[in-house]
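RECORD TYPE: inverse folding
INPUT: structure tokens
STRUCTURE:
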């Protein structure tokens, strides 16, 4: 279960209140932007779940279609249905993750008809969040996340159409998440040392460190599994317990830092162009 960070949750709560009460104190859309891996989508989902909000996610792949205009109509239908749910007493919200990749402006890409239709629909909703002619009786809080605000169509992100929330966890928030993620595999002092050394890393880095710690003991556990995978599947319940991670002891500081450095080195190597220097 994710550790909900109060600063993030408070921003989401404020946006919900301002819109579910049909006030115009805020634009209907909250844009949450920041670097990849800092938990924007996870924190948003946890914040909405904690408040009992029916979060309706607009899947990026559905914002393209072979039928011109269909993604824009889909967005309008989802907004209409969420607006009706709110009118009936169910708190609801729309989420568009990675909005800069789905409807962002990219070099040498002028946008498809569907791309332009989605942008037009988002701007129409921003300007008329309550529209009886379109069966929108209530404002619906919209949350969009992204990494690069500069890719977003400027008229959509201007003041009055979108409220912006730049998300970058503080060192204290990194400490909270790191202890939450690594508390069952490393001693508290080891996690403190890790945060001191790698506190500038995205939050996802600490989840990756945990996976690396778990993976380090995988060979020992795999020895108990049969080589015949068909037998394993037939006896899946019997072997499931063996797959769960149960550390024999919590890692100390040097051991945890060694895992983290090895992970960093592996990432650097994976990002290298391994074809460089080869002749055609």
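DESIGNED SEQUENCE:
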């Amino acid at each position: 279960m994710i550790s909900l960070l109060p600063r993030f949750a408070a921003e989401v709560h404020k946006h919900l209140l301002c819109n579910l009460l049909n006030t115009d104190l805020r634009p209907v859309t909250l844009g949450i932007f920041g670097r990849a891996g800092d938990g924007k989508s996870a924190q948003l989902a946890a914040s909405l779940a904690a408040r009992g909000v029916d979060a309706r996610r607009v899947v990026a792949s559905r914002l393209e279609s072979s039928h011109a205009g269909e993604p824009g109509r889909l967005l309008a239908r989802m907004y209409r249905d969420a607006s009706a749910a709110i009118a009936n007493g169910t708190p609801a919200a729309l989420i568009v993750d990675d909005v800069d990749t789905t409807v962002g402006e990219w070099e040498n890409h002028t946008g498809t008809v569907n791309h332009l239709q989605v942008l037009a629909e988002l701007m129409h909703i921003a300007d008329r969040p309550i529209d009886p002619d379109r069966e929108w009786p209530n404002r619906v809080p919209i949350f969009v996340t992204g990494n690069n605000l500069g890719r977003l169509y400027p008229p959509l992100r201007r003041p009055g159409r979108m409220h912006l929330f730049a998300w970058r966890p503080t060192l204290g928030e990194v400490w909270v998440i790191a202890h939450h993620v690594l508390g069952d595999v490393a001693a508290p002092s080891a996690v403190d040392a890790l945060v001191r050394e790698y506190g500038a890393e995205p939050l996802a880095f600490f989840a990756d460190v945990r996976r690396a710690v778990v993976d380090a003991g995988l060979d020992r556990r795999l020895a108990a599994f049969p080589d015949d995978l068909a037998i394993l599947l037939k006896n899946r319940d019997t072997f499931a317990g063996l797959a769960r991670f149960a550390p024999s002891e919590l890692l100390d500081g040097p051991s945890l830092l060694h895992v983290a450095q090895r992970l960093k080195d592996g990432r650097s190597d994976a990002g290298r162009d391994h074809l460089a220097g080869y002749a055609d």
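NOTES: The two ends are 49 Å apart (CA to CA).
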